[in-house]
Specification:
It contains 31 helices and 31 strands. By secondary structure, the protein is α/β, with parallel strands linked by helices. Among the domains are: about 210 residues, Rossmann fold (3-Layer(aba) Sandwich); about 200 residues, Rossmann fold (3-Layer(aba) Sandwich); about 45 residues, no CATH class. Strand 14, helix 13 and strand 15 form a beta-alpha-beta unit. Helix 9 packs antiparallel against helix 17, helix 28 crosses helix 29 and helix 29 runs parallel beside helix 30. The two termini are about 65 Å apart.
Length: about 850
């Protein structure tokens, strides 16, 4: 057992240290105590994120960390900065005695051991290859906030991490920047994707692995992450091993003298929404303007309400015409109106030359310019604008929380001598936008406080944090049994090891899809692995045990699905498919199972696109070469070799009785339709044909026309089209025409596929009801739903075909106990293991209900109820 325990213990991960141990003597004496601690921690780690509140000295910390690391590693150092902060770095570097130079091309780097500054645009556009440097730091690394979706993010991941798999004839293939830092004052703890992007850039953990380990993902929407409650503390401990959140010096045990944030006076000004007539997607006019929620709606509202918001801004300016002010806006139309209404206003915008923009920022910071207008996304990061200014007016509420909060803290920061006033102008239609912004702001404060509390409690010791997590190893076995079932809250490896050899008639399970999801906080969870290879290493402890407990000659039916690999992770810039089912086949064969084939289960392509965003209609129209297919699920069939190979029968064959008839004397005779008594019980020839790859078709009366669908509900349309599709010769163009007719009338849903392609072939199960799972009952009880529920249809068919009454059917990954629940219903006995205690307890309820033959409603009952209510209405 010890090798397995060692395997689980090795799952406890803290960020590795690849840097250099230094002392205070190695650090410039001008740095304050909290700054020296941060520099020591960052240099020792080698790849670290520095999240320090505004005014704590993030610039000098980066400069000193890069200087020391470069001195020990050799080579050149690079600091990538936003526009407008060049002079601050040059000023602080001069104070530290560090010689730095701003460059835009590698040819300008004239010292092979120097430290250089450049802008993000320079790296993104390929003018400067960062892999020529030994150490690099990203200041205000906003480019990583666009994880997976922006050119800047893809370029930076490829260049810094050496993962560019495209043609790099002009680049250094395979090389990476060894030592990397990121620094920002406002990471967004409420935007987990951003934090995971920092993690990926630093090479701490793969994004998909981190998602699996800590988050409960929305299985119907991509990148909607919810931190698992039982993993929250572990997540922040892990974060603290590579990312340092410091809100004030006392977080590190230092004095807060001189580090008090000035008061923040936030004032909200609501103006009336522009009452323009709005039409929805099917042309219906709306009497009242709706609250703007999405980016498109918010942008439309900003344009429509521009005159009212400008009037309010001018009214606020009139309170103190001579004050130094920042005017923040989001749209180019807003900038042009500000320039028209305020003669002499200095504006900074994207089309300007870089040097002109930076000169304007410097002049404003030096007090030479009274008012400066720009977008938070352009000028909100990095600049210290507090010297002569403590008032900012936002012409609207920005689309992105991080950009707005950054812009606020250009003024509210340590060493600001005045209270800071912030005015937000918004319309009545933007009330929901204001509520969402305030919610994120509050969550941001709470999350940063959690990180600061961890640092105050454990210091900067990753070892102390890891020890806390190691104590979570193991699980205390809990068993619930009835007359026809045994289920255990236990590690499935330990549970299977404790079972008798040759005791199971059928192994039926939906195994974890490698590192796709994590189902519990326990380190025995198979989803909590570092990747595909690591997952199969843990399966190496389970699969031999499954072979041992299975009766000779019997089957293991394993439900799987292939996985999508994001373009940002495969280095290709577009999504690809990991053929997980292929590796599962090879894995089971390696452990002595014989591969017998697979069933293909059709899935809903529309639902899948909502989960992955890789099959989009719009993207198909832009470039069909990016388009792939919806991924089916598979039921893989494996057999344990029987003891005797003479006839290849199982030691205990799965026997099915054929239908029979009775003669006049009551004796059984072969099935005869004309016999005095005919019984249809037993395994029929018709069912055998379907199980044995036969085809079945029934005739239809006529083609289905669009007029047949008028006035029908989605459920009726689905059933009618299914029957039509299976009863007539398939016509692809006719299929498309029906869908287009429904779309024109607003009847084609966007969240599921109404007109699914049907199949007659038994190896393709197109009629699996995707939502007919035990999650239906979970939702009704408002209980925790399973991440990947196993459809009942798959389980029912497998149990009926490959087991006999009274036999044990075993699922090592029991989940909500779908397999034992359905096994009991079909006269078998069910057995399962489940690590998640919440799933286990709910599953125990279902097994008990099945054994008592209680009526548990299914989705079909709910559909029938809906149709009955519609009929009554």
């Amino acid at each position: 057992m010890k090798p397995y325990e060692d395997f689980l213990r090795a799952k406890v991960q803290m960020a590795k240290q690849i840097g250099f141990d230094i002392t205070d003597a190695d650090i410039h004496p001008i740095l304050k105590p909290h700054q020296r601690q941060i520099v020591r921690w960052a240099v020792a780690g080698g790849r670290r994120a520095i999240f320090c509140a505004f005014g704590l000295g993030k610039t000098v910390i980066q400069l000193e960390a890069v200087r020391i690391t470069r001195a020990r590693a050799g080579g050149m150092g690079l600091i990538v900065i936003p526009l407008g902060v060049r002079q601050e770095f040059i000023r602080d570097a001069s104070m530290l005695g560090i010689k730095i130079k701003f460059v835009r091309r590698i040819e300008e780097c004239d010292d092979s051991e120097g430290i250089y500054l450049t802008n993000y645009e320079t790296v993104r556009d390929g003018k400067l290859d960062p892999r020529l440097f030994s150490v690099a730091s990203l200041d205000e690394a906003a480019c990583l906030r666009g994880f997976g979706g922006t050119k800047t993010f893809r370029e930076f991941m490829a260049l810094f991490a050496g993962d560019d798999r495209r043609d790099m004839s002009q680049r250094i293939r395979g090389r990476e920047v060894e030592y990397r830092f990121v620094a920002t004052a406002t990471p967004s703890p409420n935007e987990y994707i951003e934090l995971l992007a920092y993690c990926a850039f630093l090479g701490v953990m793969d994004v998909s692995q981190a998602k699996t380990r800590f988050f409960k993902r929305n299985s119907e929407k991509a990148d909607q992450l919810t931190l698992m409650p039982n993993r929250e503390h572990e997540f922040w401990l892990w974060m603290a091993s590579w990312a340092l959140f410091v809100q004030k010096p006392s977080d590190l045990g230092c004095s807060d003298a001189g580090y008090e944030l000035p008061p923040l006076d936030v004032r909200w000004h609501e103006v009336e929404s522009a009452q323009q007539r709005v039409f929805d997607s099917i042309g219906q006019g709306q009497m009242f303007a709706q609250e703007a929620i999405g980016i498109v709606e918010a942008a439309r509202e900003k344009r429509n309400s521009l005159p009212a918001r400008l009037a309010k801004l001018l009214e606020l300016r009139a309170e103190n015409p001579g004050a130094h002010r920042l005017l923040w806006h989001d749209l180019e139309d807003e900038r042009r109106e500000l320039e028209r209404a305020i003669p002499g206003l200095t504006t900074v915008y994207g089309a300007q030359d870089t040097d002109i923009r930076e000169a304007a920022v410097i002049a404003f910071n030096d007090g030479q310019i009274q008012e400066l207008a720009s977008k938070p996304v352009l000028l909100g990061s990095g600049c210290n604008l507090q010297r002569h200014c403590h008032w900012a007016i936002f012409m609207g509420i920005g689309f992105k929380f991080a950009d707005v909060i950054q812009a606020i803290h250009r003024l509210q920061r340590f060493l600001q001598e005045h209270p800071v006033r912030i005015d937000f102008i918004y319309t009545t239609a933007e009330r929901s936008v204001r509520r969402e912004f305030e919610r994120k702001w509050q969550q941001h404060k709470e999350m940063t406080e959690k990180m600061a509390e961890i640092i105050r409690k454990y210091g900067l010791s990753a070892a102390a944090m890891a020890e806390v997590l190691t104590r979570k190893m193991g699980v205390e076995r809990v068993e619930v049994r009835g007359q026809d079932y045994i289920i255990a809250n236990n590690d499935c490896v330990e549970e299977t090891r404790g079972m008798d050899s040759n005791s199971i008639g059928l192994v039926l399970s939906s195994i974890p899809f490698a590192a796709q999801y994590e189902y519990s906080a326990n380190y025995a969870d198979f989803g909590g692995t570092d990747g595909n290879e690591h997952f199969f290493q843990q399966m190496d402890y389970l699969t031999p045990e499954l072979l041992r407990v299975l009766q000779p000659g019997r089957l293991a039916a394993i439900h799987v699905k292939d996985r999508i690999v994001p373009g940002g992770l495969n280095g290709m810039g577009f999504q690809t498919v990991y053929p997980f089912h292929v590796d599962v086949i090879q894995h089971f064969q390696k452990h002595g199972f014989a591969y017998m084939g697979m069933k293909t289960i059709v899935t809903d392509v529309v639902r899948e696109n909502n989960q992955t965003y890789r099959l989009g209609w719009s993207e198909q129209c832009k470039d069909a070469s990016k388009m792939s297919f919806g991924l089916p699920e598979y039921l893989l069939l494996f057999r344990k070799p029987p003891s005797s190979t003479e006839k290849s029968y199982a030691d205990v064959p799965v026997v099915k009785e054929k239908p029979f008839s009775l003669d006049v004397d009551g004796n059984r005779i072969p099935f005869d339709r004309n016999a005095p008594m005919v019984t249809s019980t037993g395994y029929s020839r018709a069912r055998w044909q379907l199980d044995a790859h036969g085809f079945t078709r029934s005739s239809g009366d006529r083609l289905l026309g669009p007029e047949d669908l008028e006035g029908l509900s989605h459920a009726d349309i689905f059933q009618l089209f299914k029957r039509f599709s299976l009863e007539t010769v398939y016509d692809f163009e006719h299929h498309v025409m029906i869908g287009e007719h429904l779309e024109a009338r607003g009847k084609l849903p966007s969240d599921f596929m109404l007109l699914q392609t049907q199949s007659w072939h038994p190896d393709v199960w197109a009629d699996i009801t995707r939502m007919r799972t035990l999650n239906t009952m979970q939702a009704a009880k408002k209980a925790e739903q399973h991440i990947c529920p196993l459809p009942l249809d798959i389980v029912d068919r497998a149990i009926a075909q490959w087991s006999m009454k009274g036999e044990w059917v075993y699922d090592p990954f029991g989940g909500l106990m779908t397999v034992p629940y359905r096994a009991i219903a079909q006269g078998r006995r069910g057995r399962a293991a489940e690590l998640n205690p919440a799933y286990f307890l709910d599953g125990a309820t279902y097994c008990k209900a099945a054994e008592r033959e209680m009526s548990v409603p299914t989705l079909f009952d709910l559909e029938a109820l809906d149709q009955e209510q519609e009929a009554m209405a």
